[in-house]
Amino acid sequence: MKEGVIKFSYDWKKKPLPASLDIGELVKYRNKLRDCTGGIKETKRQMEHGFSLTKKILSQSPQRSQRRDFLGLEIKKGNSELPVYGLIGADENGVGYGNISVRYKSSGQFIISASDTGKIKRAGKYHFTVVNSVDIKKNFVSCAGMKVASSESMTHDIIYNLSSGIKCVIHVHNLRLWKKFLNKVPTTSKTISYGTTEMANDIRRLWVKSGLKEKRILVMAGHEGGLVVFGESIEEAYSLIMEYFNE
Fold it and tell me: Does pTM surpass 0.90?
């Protein structure tokens, strides 16, 4: 199944987040993850890919005003939205990946980056959604925001339910890290897909049997490139993924 597809049923109320809600820190760290590309070799490959894609696009577009990149966005000088393979980003098909959330108010609520926002270069408040409740057994999510909640909302929810001390969850993609830590840290079954009730239940299993509580990182074996970290604050969760990233 295509990445980024929402696999749960949902009740979505399309409305802006409250004006009084300050998520500046959440937005800041999301954008830092978007900017974080992998290693020298990986960065070189990405630059080469972006350059070749640019030439292809421009050669196919006779008029500058009509030129569009692979995401369908107009190419503007100094503001191209070509592929950026950050820890949060979009693939060569324009499908976004990665998400970040923080606990909000009651234990059943959290604020998460919305679905299909990985491709956004600089996210803002508009690109986040409040998840009001999740029913894992019924595969159902209730949310409110200008966009539907991330396809990984059920994964974030189960992690918050594991401990009241968890205040932030970050899901990233990086093939180098994924290969390095696959089965070296708590790892979900390779037969389980992302964003499903099965994934939520398997994460609960890892918490009980695989030291997830102490390590605070897991690899999704059935979701190539996918890793999840969590912490008692945004800064702690971000520092943890960067610690692994820089090893």
Answer: no
